[in-house]
């Protein structure tokens, strides 16, 4: 199976124009987690028109298209794209801007979906490979774990895969520049909440009260010691406070009965993740006990760390190098502090996740902001990358 360049894909101007129209149409009609009905209809109809066997309903709105190569082979690989949008009001001013108030494709999932559809079409036209490709279109990446739900609904039972691959755009990287790394690449993303409960009381008579503000303050100040004293120096981890709530603004003379502190915890290894949860609870209880305050920890494990497997990273690097040139590929990139639910798939199947530059420059609007827009110039690059992954794995 020959290697494909973006120039080869872009030379088919009618094909690129059609994909761009699809991308911009999906952008006009954003659908948030588990509500991607219109988007999944577009995806399923597209794959069915290519003659693929299409399965719907995993994760509610998930779609899987199956393409068998013309050469004999038992190997099966999965290629995954996410479909959902975010609850953000768009301010790009683009002619194809969101027509749904308060929702937009602010992370480029419209582009991810389009690139994989394009690769599906090209591969279906000439399935010159040995084995099977599962095209996985996933709902609800943004916070609700659509990958986990698809797996729980039987994704890898119905469609067993030997390898699985994922892609995300990166607007802070030059167009087409690819980065990845073996091992931990993106962090676990957990949410924690500590509730400090006392009696509260009159601000002028604190001796008659049990005051939860003191242990809450000591707890917040102590959080930094988790990273400096309990996490190995060569391991990355983050604990941040994002919300503090207590009392009433109009009652500064009242000691509140309850203080709530919420935040995020990020880590790259399961052992460090365990340490963060244990230590947040221990510090909260340790601060509360001397003041007769009850401290309750609620720790929610959302997305696990995204851990690429070395063999599949090597394959992805070869595919990326064939696509954009080895000089534009970073095979040992720095770890990323964000989280991604493709990590659930990598817990079940070996695979690799890469980020490809969206080419908007260092001053570009970042993902999850009202001015973000996927760069359509990335479409032929993404299509070529996916085709080269298939060539490297099944060629």
From TrEMBL:
Its cofactor is Mn(2+). The keyword Hydrolase applies. Keywords: Hydrolase, Manganese, Metal-binding. GO terms for molecular function: hydrolase activity; metal ion binding. Coiled coil: none annotated. InterPro entries: Amidohydrolase, Bact_exopeptidase_dim_dom, Peptidase_M20, Peptidase_M20_dimer. Mn(2+) binds at residues 107, 109, 142, 168, 368. The keyword RNA-binding does not apply. SUPFAM superfamilies: Bacterial exopeptidase dimerisation domain, Zn-dependent exopeptidases. Residues 191-286 form the Peptidase M20 dimerisation domain. The Mn(2+) ion enhances activity. PANTHER family: METALLOPEPTIDASE, PUTATIVE (AFU_ORTHOLOGUE AFUA_6G09600)-RELATED, PEPTIDASE M20 FAMILY MEMBER. This is Amidohydrolase. It comes from Pseudooceanicola spongiae.
């Amino acid at each position: 199976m020959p290697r494909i360049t973006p120039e080869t894909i872009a030379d088919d101007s009618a094909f690129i124009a059609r994909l761009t129209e699809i991308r911009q149409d999906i952008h006009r009609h954003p659908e948030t987690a588990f509500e991607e009905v219109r988007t999944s209809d577009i995806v399923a109809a597209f794959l069915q028109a290519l003659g693929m066997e299409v399965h719907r309903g995993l994760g509610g709105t998930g779609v899987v298209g199956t393409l068998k190569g013309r050469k004999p082979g038992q190997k099966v690989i999965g290629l995954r794209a996410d479909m959902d949008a975010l609850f953000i009001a768009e301010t790009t001013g683009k002619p194809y801007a969101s027509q749904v108030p308060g929702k937009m494709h602010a992370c480029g999932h419209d582009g991810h979906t389009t690139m994989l559809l394009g690769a599906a079409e090209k591969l279906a036209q000439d399935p010159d490979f040995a084995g099977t490709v599962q095209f996985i279109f996933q709902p609800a990446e943004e916070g609700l774990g659509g990958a986990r739900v698809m797996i729980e609904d039987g994704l890898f039972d119905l469609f067993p895969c030997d390898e699985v691959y994922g892609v995300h755009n990166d607007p802070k990287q030059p167009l087409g520049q690819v980065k990845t790394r073996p091992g931990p690449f993106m962090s676990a993303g957990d949410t924690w909440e500590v509730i400090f409960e006392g009696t509260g009381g009159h601000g002028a008579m604190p001796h008659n009260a049990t005051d939860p503000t003191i242990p809450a303050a000591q707890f917040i100040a102590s959080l930094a010691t988790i990273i400096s004293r309990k996490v190995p120096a060569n391991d990355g981890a983050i604990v941040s406070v994002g919300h503090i709530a207590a009392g009433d603004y109009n009652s500064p003379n009242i000691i509140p009965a309850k203080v709530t502190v919420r935040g995020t915890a990020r880590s790259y290894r399961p052992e460090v993740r365990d340490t963060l949860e244990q230590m947040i609870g221990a510090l909260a209880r340790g601060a509360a006990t001397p003041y007769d305050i009850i401290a309750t920890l609620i720790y929610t494990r959302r997305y696990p760390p995204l851990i690429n497997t070395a063999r599949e990273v090597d394959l992805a690097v070869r595919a990326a190098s064939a696509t954009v040139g080895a000089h534009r590929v970073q095979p040992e990139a720095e770890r990323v502090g964000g989280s991604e639910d493709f990590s659930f798939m990598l817990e079940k199947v070996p695979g690799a996740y890469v980020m490809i530059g969206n080419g908007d420059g260092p001053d570009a609007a970042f993902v999850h902001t009202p001015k973000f827009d996927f760069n359509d110039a990335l479409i032929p690059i993404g299509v070529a990358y996916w085709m080269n992954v298939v060539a490297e794995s099944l060629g």
